[in-house]
Amino acid sequence: MKSHRKELWFNIPTRRGFVNITPQVETCLHESGILEGLILVSAMHITASVFINDDESGLHQDYEKWLEKLAPHEPVSQYRHNDTGEDNADAHMKRQIMGREVVVAVTDGKLDFGPWEQIFYGEFDGRRRKRVLVKVIGE
Ligand code: ZN
Fold it and tell me: Distance, CA 133 to ligand 1 centroid (Å)?
């Protein structure tokens, strides 16, 4: 069995944002030379997510609105986590809902997606450098 590990770095200039990282993940897969196996893509920070869904801007605006309803950023004083002097309790919760990682089957050297599936990085407390782990295993 072969394995290949890579870290992707992001620095989202705003507090929140979604980025389609499918091309970067495909590059990792091609570098690995693996044709059959699994690929794990995982956010290494507890205020960011990796998830799979449609690349559609309306949907991303809907996520933004929905997540702000569930865990509004303001007022920051509503969260006990922020008593520590941080202001990102909402970002921890948004990460919990949107997920930590995805696993995609690798078939014939390609990501074995459904018709509209794409991989996204979800940032909930940006304006700093953060990493995503990509691990490919197989042969
Ligand atoms: Zn925090």
Answer: 20
